[in-house]
Each structure stands twice: as C-alpha cells, then as structure tokens.
Amino acid sequence: MDEAEQITGEKVRVPIALKWLETLLITAFFLAFSVWHRPDDPFYLTGNFPWPVLGPLLVGLRYGFFMALISA
Question: Most distant CA pair in the chain: distance in Å?
Fold first, then answer.
C-alpha cells in the first residue's frame, strides 16, 4: 500500500478495460501453455492436478467471482 492509500483507507479502482484485458490474457496464457506443454492432454484430465485451473483461480483472487466465472 502506498502512503495515500494508508491515510485515506480507500482502495484504488482498476479500470474495467484493464480487468477484461487481464482476464483474457491470463486465461489465454494458461490455455496456450497447457496446449504447448501437453498437446495430447491440454486440460490435464489424466494428470494429478489440472494446472489450467490456476488461470481462473488467479483471476478470481484478483477481481472476484464474476471475472473468475468468465475465465473458467
């Protein structure tokens, strides 16, 4: 947190265009990485952990449920 945020207690709002851009980029990154890393099983259905689920998880932690739902 910066000094102004600590004094006023207000959170800085992220522009809606940046929210959508980050959501789409993070989702695309995880899907593209999965296809590149494991082209025969990009959703890791036969693996121990479905790694592409980290995309919506990170988006949800940053922007909330709705953006995570869109990412998923």
Answer: 53
